[in-house]
Design goal:
alpha+beta, Rossmann fold, Elongation Factor Tu (Ef-tu), domain 3, 5 domains, 8-stranded antiparallel sheet, 28% helix, globular
């Protein structure tokens, strides 16, 4: 166990693609934590999805030993940069005393740079600003250092200039970490209190909790008590990530590591819980824990095979351990059967969760079109609507409120007009414009969340040639003129296709969806009407023409009455089918029509770019 005065807990925070994971690689090499033959790019990105997409999804902790004037133990946490994974960053900050704020010397301060700075400052961390990618030809270290110095309150001359790619001045950065990041507080003599900041499930060992010890000592094979769950267990092992899982006899105050809890019930281990020693020596007061994340986007997840419902439920239970921001509840659809209504922090988060469920648990899933949470006001009653099919009929409520976010957009001044035009077209309300420099502006807008979860980011990047960046935070609910658009097939509403949109865009949305369904649904033996309706008013219609068997194929001439008789019989048969027929919508058509998230999610993945 390490003395607390030689411990430093810090994380790296930055905007997307500013070089966090590359800097973590250089620090691993500098501290000789990984043998040269085992080293690879983005070493701490363990998931296949992270390596394929070039993004960090899960924060990863690693324990390093660094020799300066003395031997120091550094607990480093590499964090994600995407706005959908801000909750991962906030949890990581609670396990640290300091943060390296990394800024691309070519790109300058971006939206997530500001967001992460405010998160770290609010958490009371020591913030060390550093400019990365100073070796790039287009880098402007002087101007970027001035911007960063103004933000953090440092003299621009003191802002470190490094290259994570080449390793230039990374030792100086580690020296700053040791000098400026305070050692953790906590006494060995106090009762054990350890904060669970992440967890995972192992099929053989049960729940494995990632903990930060605040007070006391956590010995291996101790009898533990989880305070929020009010559950006891016998821990099988504790250890550290160095960078692979390495068992140790005990974890002392300020140390970060893992704990094999021995629990098989995934519902007992919760992120934010406090671990203490069971029995008379246990702590009286739990640690503060975390603010519960509030989902921004909701979507239904259904197994393609109905028999996989139980497997999907178990998979969600286990994934929830590793992804505390995921929320879900059972729901039923007439079209898709039994499934779950799931809450996500954004479209990329939704896409990642769905792909992890399919890859890690071998499931085939259908995701319904994503939507936000609405509040329907009826007198003094507030009805929370997660699923558009739950929206009450028009005329049965007073009004609807939708979630609103405060969006921060950082853009070159040249494209300011295009950004303002885009935000206005999405029902935005301008708050203010601040100039970070003569060439860069920071714009604040109030925007409906429903207007930005689909293609807003892609439009923003398109209009600014990729230079603008976006961050947003929820600020409450506002009244809006929203309606439910239903899709009727052969006169029957299909709940899976229902959606809530603004009245001004309802007809256009309905027209697009019925045109898409006309291409996807195969022809039946009778004409099929596809209609988009708002209440009882049909706003768009397409017809899939019936298949027509050639009943006259064997009539080689002769009396015309024979042909007429055959055609009349065919006509009567089609009329009967039209009355009693059921439209057969194949699974492929449902997947293609409902998976707006496939296109949006792929675009969301593209927005992150590759890593340097």
């Amino acid at each position: 166990m390490t003395e607390t005065n030689r411990l430093r807990n810090f994380c790296i925070v930055a905007h997307i693609d500013h070089g966090k994971s590359t800097l973590a690689d250089r620090i691993l090499e500098l501290t000789h934590a990984v043998a040269a033959r085992d080293m690879r790019d983005q070493y701490l990105d363990r998931m296949d999805l992270e390596r394929e997409r070039g993004i960090t999804i899960k924060a990863q902790a690693v324990r390093l030993t660094y020799q300066l004037d003395d031997t120091y133990v550094l607990n480093l946490i590499d964090t994600p940069g995407h706005v959908d994974f801000t909750y991962e960053v906030s949890r990581s900050l609670a396990a640290c005393e300091g943060a390296v704020l990394l800024v691309d010397a070519a790109q300058g301060i971006e939206a997530q740079t500001l967001a992460n700075f405010h998160l770290a400052r609010d958490a009371g961390l020591a913030i060390i600003p550093a400019l990365n990618k100073i070796d790039l030809p287009q880098a402007d270290p002087e101007e970027t250092a001035r911007e960063v110095g103004e933000l953090v309150g440092w003299d621009p001359k003191d802002v470190l200039r490094i290259s994570a790619k080449t390793g230039q001045d990374v030792p100086a950065l580690l020296q700053k970490v040791i000098e400026l990041v305070p050692a953790p507080q906590g006494r060995r003599e106090d009762p054990l209190r350890a904060l669970v900041f992440d967890s995972t499930f192992d099929a053989y060992r049960g729940v494995v909790a990632y903990v930060r010890v605040k007070d006391g000592v956590l010995p291996s094979r101790a009898k533990i008590h989880l305070m929020a769950a009010n559950a006891d267990s016998e821990a099988e092992e504790c250890g550290v990530f160095a960078p692979e899982a390495t068992p140790v006899p005990e974890l002392g105050p300020g140390e970060v590591g893992y704990l094999v809890t021995g629990m098989k019930d995934v519902h007992l281990a919760k992120v934010g819980d406090t671990v203490t020693i069971a029995g008379k020596h246990r702590a009286r007061e739990p640690l503060p824990g975390y603010r519960e994340p509030k989902p921004m986007v909701w979507s239904g997840l259904y197994p393609a095979e109905g028999g996989d419902y139980t497997a999907l439920r178990d998979a969600l239970d286990k994934l929830k351990l590793n992804d505390a921001a995921l929320q879900y509840e059972p729901e039923t659809s007439k079209a898709l059967g039994f499934g779950f209504r799931c809450g996500f922090l954004g479209l990329l988060h939704m896409d990642i969760v769905k792909e992890r469920l399919e890859r890690e648990f071998g499931l085939e899933l259908i995701a319904t079109a994503p939507n936000v949470e609405f509040h329907v006001i009826r007198g003094n009653e507030v009805i929370v609507v997660h699923n558009p099919s739950e929206m009450p009929a028009p005329g049965t409520y007073d009004h609807v409120e939708e979630p609103v976010v405060l969006a921060t957009i950082v853009t070159p001044s040249t494209y300011l007009g295009a950004v303002l035009e885009l935000c206005q077209s999405r029902r935005g309300e301008l708050i203010d414009i601040t100039y970070l420099s003569p060439e860069r502006a920071e714009v604040h807008y109030r925007l409906p969340l429903a207007e930005i979860i689909f293609d807003f980011f892609d439009q923003l990047k398109s209009k600014t040639r990729g230079y603008a960046s976006l961050d947003y935070e929820p600020v409450g609910y506002e009244r809006a003129d929203l309606v439910r658009v239903d899709i009727l097939l052969h006169g029957e509403p299909v709940d899976a296709f229902s959606s809530v949109v603004h009245r001004d865009k309802a007809a256009q949305y309905g027209r697009q969806l019925v045109e898409r369904l006309r291409e996807l649904i195969p022809r039946q033996l009778f004409d099929v009407a596809i209609q988009a309706a708002i209440g009882s008013r049909v706003v768009a219609r397409e017809t899939i023409k019936a298949k027509r068997k050639d009943v006259l194929a064997k009539c080689y001439g002769g009396d015309i009455t024979r042909k007429r008789k055959l055609l009349e019989q065919q006509k009567k048969g089609k009329a009967r089918l039209r009355r009693v027929g059921r439209v057969d919508v194949p699974q492929e058509a449902f997947i293609a029509a409902l998976r707006v998230d496939q296109r949006a999610g792929q675009k969301a993945g593209q927005r992150t770019g590759g890593k340097p």
